[in-house]
C-alpha cells in the first residue's frame, strides 16, 4: 500500500526459468468440494474459475517438466509464446453475456457461457510452455469490473465452498465467474497469508452493481473469518474486523507513526485508512485498559 515510505534497496532471489506442462478441465460446481484438496496438492500452480450460473468450474493446473519434448510425448501441444486464458472471440462472447443478463435474457446468456468454456478447454486442455508464457494470462483480455477478494485459512475450504455454493444456488450472481486460488503461508507482518496456508476467492462485478453484491458476499462470509486483499474492496471493511484478523496491526501502526509521523509518503486514500485504523486501535487499547482496571477492581474486592 506504500504506507511506510519508498523502497531504496532490494535484494532479489532468482530461480531457474521453468518449463511448465499445463492442463485444463471442466467439472460441475457440485464436484468442487470433493476434488479441491487434490487439485491443490497435486499441482504446483492451480487456478479454479467458477461459473456459478451454469454450475460449472474450470480447473487449470501446471507443473514443471525437464523439457518440452517430455510433455509433447505425453500429448501436450507446444506453446511457443504467450498463452491467453481468454482469446478475443471468448471475450466477445462474455461481453454479449453481460448484455443479455442486463436485459434479463438469462437462457441466451448461459448458452454463450457454455460456448466460452467449450472454447477454452479445447484450446488449453493440454499444452507446454515457458513459465512466464504459461502463467501470465488474460490481463490484456479482461472485461472492466470491480473486485473484492477474501483470504481464508486453507483448512476451512469445505466450509467456505459449501457456504458460497448455497449462496449461488439461492441467488443468481451478477457476473460470469469468480476465481479461487491458494498460496503458502509466510511471515510478513500484514500479509493475508501470515501463519497459515490460504485459499482466496476473488468476486467480480460491473461497477454499477458491485456494491450491493459485495455487501451480500461479505456479510455471508464474515462468520467464517477472512482477511481481505489490501487492494480489493478495502473501503467496505469494518476496522474492528481488520484489527481482529491482523494481530500485528497495532505494531504496524506504531511503526508508521515512528517512520512517517507527518504522512509524507501517504496519499489521500492511505491517510484515510491510517486515520480509521489508528482510531480503532486507540479505542481497542482503551477497552483493554478499562477491562484490566475492572478486573483488577474485582480481584481486589
In short:
The chain has helices spanning 32-42, 68-73, 88-102, 106-124, 131-134, 157-170, 207-221, 239-245, 249-259, 268-300, and strands spanning 19-28, 45-51, 56-65, 77-78, 126-130, 146-153, 178-183, 198-205, 227-228. The protein is an alpha+beta fold.
How would you explain this protein's 3D organization?
With 301 residues, this protein is of the alpha+beta class. It has 2 domains: 19-239, Vanillyl-alcohol Oxidase, Chain A, domain 3 (3-Layer(aba) Sandwich), CATH 3.40.462; 249-300. It has 10 helices and 9 strands. The protein has helices at 32-42, 68-73, 88-102, 106-124, 131-134, 157-170, 207-221, 239-245, 249-259, 268-300, and strands at residues 19-28, 45-51, 56-65, 77-78, 126-130, 146-153, 178-183, 198-205, 227-228. Strand 2 (45-51) and strand 3 (56-65) form a beta hairpin. Helix 1 crosses helix 6 and helix 8 (239-245) packs across helix 10 (268-300).
